[in-house]
Inverse folding.
């Protein structure tokens, strides 16, 4: 049973890799730019993330903050 579970866990999720979560918890060292690259593949969405999360200064994001990724 353990081997079956390990095999299942190692297989790709049926939801696919392109599913965007609703939220992201900021980790130490992350920036809006790095989060933008992680989820959108481009740094160009950093301003969008700042806007939808009401951040006045997009250069300052605190570790532990929970950010919305879409409206």
């Amino acid at each position: 049973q353990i081997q079956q579970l390990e095999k299942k866990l190692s297989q790709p999720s049926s939801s696919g890799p392109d599913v965007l979560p609703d939220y992201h918890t900021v980790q130490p060292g992350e920036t809006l730019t790095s989060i933008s690259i992680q989820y959108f593949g481009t740094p160009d969405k950093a301003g969008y993330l700042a806007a939808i999360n009401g951040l006045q200064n997009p250069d300052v994001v605190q570790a532990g903050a929970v950010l919305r990724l879409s409206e």
In short: The longest strand covers residues 23-25. The helical segments are 2-10, 32-40, 46-52. Residues 2-10 form the longest helix (9 residues). Residues 49 and 67 are 8 Å apart (CA to CA).
